[in-house]
Amino acid sequence: MRRPQSLPLLKQPGATFKNRGKALNHDESDKDEDFYSEIAPRITCMPIQKRQPYKRCEEYCGDEYGQWRMEQMKGAERLEKELKGRWSMEDLIDEQVKRFQAQYSSIPTKLIKDVAEVLMPKWAPPRELAALSWLGDWRPSAIPRLLHSLIHAGTLPESRAVKTVLPLLMEELRAEEAVIEEEMAEIQANCIFHLPLGMMRKKKGGVAALACVHTEFKKVHQVLIKAQNLRVKAMHVSVKKVVSPPTDAAQFLVAFARLQDLIHQHAMRHHLIHGPVSVLTA
Questions:
Q1: pLDDT of residue 70
Q2: Domain boundaries, given as residue ranges, for the chain
Q3: pLDDT tens digit string along 112-129?
Q4: Where is this region: Disordered (predicted)?
Q5: CA–CA separation, 146 and 152 (whole Å)
């Protein structure tokens, strides 16, 4: 089949393709450019500035907000320090209470010499024992009574717990002290009236008589355990239940420790000056 003469072999060199391959000459393309330039708005280029460094909040929000923000941050820092101080104070209070509990919970062995050491400790001068000792240490009811004295003197504030819990605690401690004192009095009476006369006459040999003495000291040992537990209860309730703020509890513990040391130092000074206690006989 022969090609028609009217069809060109190649496309014209000046032609361009647009709209899916339709050939356009130079005149038509110029007309299109003029047409679109009349319709489209003129576009202007906008210069891009270099990014400015970050400015402080005061420059954007004003000096008043900046000053308020600084005061707020300072106040938050002070509160944080107070919180840390309160936590550390509570830790110190717990440590001090545990130290008293460890002292009062030190249950002696059942040996005669250990029980006698608890009743009459060697580190305490006689006048100190005579002043406040009850079965080897402070009377349990004296602990909340000291707290009551500090509140009455105005050193510690009076709270609702002081009015309700403190009187009940002192009444309960006195009742338990009376029970312990009755048990100890019964043991002492048994030692005085029965050991030298009755039991030692019935039992032949020193071994059996010594066994009776050990039996009575075991009873004393149980009484001392009750007394120590009662001291632990008095200290724990006074600090944890009666005195609520940590600062008041810390003041009470400091006053209690200083009073103990003051009485001990006074008794030791008197002992060094005047010597041991002597009783004049006719």
A1: 78
A2: 64-270
A3: 777 878 888 887 888 888
A4: 1-31
A5: 10
pLDDT in tens, 223-276: 999 999 999 999 999 999 998 788 888 889 999 988 888 888 888 888 888 777
158 phi/psi in degrees, rounded to 5: -95, 125
pTM for this model (two decimals): 0.65
- Nearest alpha carbon to residue 235 among 102, 144, 105, 118: 144
* Contact between residue 281 and residue 142 where contact means Cβ atoms under 8 Å apart: no
Q: Indicate whether 212 pLDDT > 60.
A: yes
Residue of 228, 238, 237 lying closest to 147 (CA atoms): 238
Q: How far apart are CA 79 and CA 72, in angstroms?
A: 10
Provide the 10 A C-beta neighbour count for residue 29.
14
Tell which residue, 126, 131, 219, 142, has the closest CA to residue 177.
142
